[in-house]
Predict the 3D structure of the following.
Amino acid sequence: MKQVGVIGAGVMGEALIAALISYGISPESITISEKRKDRADELSARYAIKVEDIATNVSKADALLLVVKPQDMAATLDEIKGSINKSAVVITFAAGKKISFIEQGLGTGNPVVRVMPNTPTLVGAGMAAISLGAGVSAKQSEFVSGFLAATGKTIQVTEDLQDAVTATSGSGPAYFFRFVEAMIDGAKALGLSDADATTLTVQTIVGAAKLLDESGKSATTLRENVTSPNGTTAAALASFESHQLGNVVAQAMKAARDRSQELA
């Protein structure tokens, strides 16, 4: 891609800019449009990228990243449809907004790719699911998959599964953080200091995640390996089961999926 435009330069927008550069896109080929001038100037100085008004940006871009909130998407599409490069691939990162919504909002026939990233993208450990709209070329698909790989891992799914992706990996980091909060609170209730409870919990979680990622063993196998019959771990897991942890998680994920559908 000779020119990449980024609309919206918040935290996720910055992570994607860093990924584009890591992928090999030169900073001078990346242009951002951001309503907050101080933020635009900050990113321009940090990454040596260009800043343009939105009309100029979208008219030049071969690939256009829409990193705006779902509730702002309709207004953004209306603003750019008169200026957009008709051959550009449009890549949307807005939760719940379907490819058809982007296509209809633009009315320009641009190929559209829908992506659901998550916040670990910020540290290069993200998970992104990609869905391709009609007319996306092999070169454009390769570009999207390639630069997103610089943010972590990627998979490609049919668009009808994007709401399930949102409920799993998109919202998933918040489930994890909430569990960490609960573990820290539980440790403090048992007498540990806040600092020690935090260190013990965070390192335990980090280590367990690394073991799961690198051991090649399933979560079920690793759980069984650490659970001695009638031991301390078994007692804790029995408490989880008595409170129907599996059902609680499944219902939470369904609620996230349903809300994603409502945002469409």
About this structure: The first helix runs from residue 11 to 23.
